[in-house]
Amino acid sequence: MKFSVLERVLLGQLLSSPRVGGYENLKVLRVTREALSFSEVEHKRLCFRNVGADQQWKGSIVVEKATGKEIDFTPEDLAKDPEMPQKKVDSDPEVYEFRPSVEDKKIAIGEYVSGLIATELKALEEAEKLTEQIIPLFEMFVVNASAKKPAKPKRKKKPNRAKKKR
Question: Which pTM value belongs to this model?
Answer without folding.
Answer: 0.78
